[in-house]
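**Tokenised fold:**
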Amino acid sequence: MSESSATQPRGQQHALHPSQNPIFCPRCASPKTQTKNRAKKLGGAFGTCFGIANSFSGAAKGAAACAAIGLRATAQTSSLNSITAAVLSALAGGAIGCATGATLGQVIDDTVLNNFLCLHCGHSFPTP
């Protein structure tokens, strides 16, 4: 592993690219800052968990209702179809929950939390 990749901190470091405006630390005026995005990461994780749990709950309720109503009216279907539908709905619910949670977390990062960290002096500060 190279030395430069081993010493870089985790997170998104703002590069000094001419087309981008760097974020300067209000304490020491250093352009070496990174975003923490803690609420975005936490919101994405919680959203994924809740989306999967909600999808499995809905799939179980739907399977129970289908079994109660259509037991005699329809032909017997394979249990593999129900399992496949439950897994696919859980994946879709997890993806939707993750996107929603990450978006809400980004709003919280931008408006409430000190989302930026100066790599030079260690000062945390909100979105300028």
